[in-house]
From TrEMBL:
Mn(2+) binds at C99, H101, E134, H160, H354. GO terms for molecular function: hydrolase activity; metal ion binding. NCBIfam families: amidohydrolases (TIGR01891). Gene3D superfamilies: 3.30.70.360, Zn peptidases. It comes from Gemmobacter aquaticus. The Mn(2+) ion enhances activity. Keywords: Hydrolase, Manganese, Metal-binding. Its cofactor is Mn(2+). This is Amidohydrolase. The keyword Protein biosynthesis does not apply. Residues 181-278 form the Peptidase M20 dimerisation domain.
Amino acid sequence: MTTGQDEITQLVAFRRALHRIPELSGNEARTAREVEAFTQASRPDQVIRALGGHGLALIYAGSEPGPTVMIRAELDALPIAETGPVEWRSAVPGKGHLCGHDGHMAILAGLALRLGWQRPSRGRVVLMFQPAEEDGSGAAAVIADARFPSIKPDFAFSLHNLPGLPLGHAVIEPGPANCASVGMRLAFAGRTAHAAEPHKAVSPAMTIARLVPALSALGTGGALDESFRLVTITHLSMGEPAFGITPGAGEVWATLRCLTDDGMSALKSAALALAEAEAQAAGLKLSVSWHDDFAASRNDPEATALMRAALMAAGLPVIPGEPMRASEDFGRFGATARSAMFWLGAGETHPALHAPDYDFPDSLIAPGLAAFERVIRDLLG
């Protein structure tokens, strides 16, 4: 099926409408309603609402038995104020679709329209509009939902646009695709004292000063191989903004990142042991909490081969690439299905993901739609 210009014009308008109303992770109620309203004309055979939060699943069934193929997009936006000049920029202060999830949703909305015109010959297609990707909680919540087993896919596919790659070029490789990552919050509690009598305090100052380089040394980056480890200090706080008080409390926030889940387990243990030893030596109480927990994402060889063939058949140039340091919540679906994600180039000089002037290139809607439709037809007819 060819891509009609009227269809693409409609999808571009829909993408820009979504861009104006960004909602953060866990708060995507309006976005889900807008998606459902736009795709209603495709007459899905089943609609599952409020899946794992505000998730939305549209199911299209073939006339013969066959595998279930899931295509996933994300609903959420970011807590970043948009500064770009586009007419359709965010109408919500301090929030913006600055990762391209609006474009990913538009591509899946186009798939819904195509599937409304022509169901698969066999099996089922699940169009999954997933909530809460940005904080790493959405996929786990969807999988834990009691209704998910009824639509559990055999194959799962997704894309992410990627500035820095040539516009419209694709990268897909088997094996590691995205790093695992987790946020580690260390809260130290001691005792304050007068600034003239620091010896009477139990202060976290020197503990924090030692921990920053020590934690950073646990993961310094390097080549994206099985040994890759990176620790990034993201936030520090200590005491009150006053000159007369020796601080009695402080926090260190760090993001831990590894290419594999096993590597992440070892890195978490090492970071925790380091923090515990420092707190004990200083006589501080330590509280540890973990946040934004992303599993490593790996592309299944069979699913990767199918998606690569579909990309090439759809006319997209496929070029070599390497895993992303950034994390992706899609990785959790790899435990439930043969899954693969590809990167779709947004342009070599395009503003970076999460930059305040980023905007999804509308020219990627047609190729993304073509690639996904092709893999669906190749698998299900």
